[in-house]
Amino acid sequence: MRIVSGIQPTGNLHLGNYLGAIRNWVRMQDELEEGAECLFFLADLHAISMPHEPAALHRATLEMVAALVACGIDPDRSILFNQAQVPAHAELQWLLNGTARMGWLNRMTQFKDKSGKNREGASAALFTYPVLQAADVLLYQTTHVPVGEDQKQHLELARDIAQKFNNDFASEEAPVFTLPDPITPPEAARIMSLREGSKKMSKSDPSDMARINLTDDSETIVKKIKKAKTDPEPLPSDSNGLVGRPEALNLVSIYGALSGETVDAVLARFGGQGFGVFKPALADLMVESIAPITARFRDLLEDREALDAILAKGAARARERAVPTLDAAYRALGLVRG
Ligand code: TYM
Description:
The chain is mostly helical and 338 residues long. The chain is built from 13 helices and 5 strands. The chain folds into 2 domains: 2-189 and 304-332, HUPs (Rossmann fold), CATH 3.40.50; 208-300, Tyrosyl-Transfer RNA Synthetase (Orthogonal Bundle), CATH 1.10.240. The two termini are 32 Å apart. Ligand 1 binds next to strand 1, helix 1 and helix 7. Its EC number is 6.1.1.2.
């Protein structure tokens, strides 16, 4: 079993990243079987697909390492690194560009969302972004990829690319790539914006009130929950009553993801109550869950040398593991390398 996943270092880690992905990374790391391995990386090469400020990317990358360690990723047990220090990711992407089809990339909803109306002005990197993501996982013979719901389409594409490459350039007995399976935590697959229940919670939302950052202090969390959009109805007694109430569903789902309960179990307790009761309970639970992470994050940020050392060690281990598959891909394509 090999587990691989990534996160873009574009600003603050938020509750959606934590509940949708990172908490699952930590769980998988902590429950790992003998002989299995986890690789977690900062997708800094992906981050340059959108307009960015170099100094901010540099800072965000180090902050994200600190945040991941604060959330429970142990750099001794897991391999924690950034793509930019493992050139095999970019190399394999180029090789896979020969296999990925334009039609496949044209169907990716993330490209449509992020390029918006200005498709002609989008970077080529934004278009080929999913091919780099495929390289990230295929490079390591990955079996499992813990991600939120929004990344599932990219993982399907990685499987399509692997399958076509294996068919075109390898034999059935000796495939070059393993087909990876996405793993999505059901109770927190999609955490939505606090301002609009139909939009996912996102780092790029211009309103900071729309998300809970893992660096928010208690006061800010209480304020954001208090201001979160809701409707005037009290909470229903089971999940059927949340149909057509996306904001209420989101807040109850967040509560359940934090407390480890199903939506129905949360409603069994809070059904019939208004948000005047539910919101303070949610804010308390959230503060309690996030405060230890925030404290550790602040300490880690003080030690720049330690953060550099974590990334250097992780990259060396990742580079080692990338060699066999990258070599096999070059060979399969007939490329001469001495
Ligand atoms: P990114 O950086 O946008 O998000 C990191 C992880 O957090 C999950 N996530 C969410 N889950 C639930 N609700 C939300 N509102 C929410 N927002 C984000 C994402 O699903 C993701 O698991 N392309 C990827 C990074 C990447 C990657 C990879 C992931 C690059 N290569 C290879 C897996 C494997 C991305 O931009 O995630």
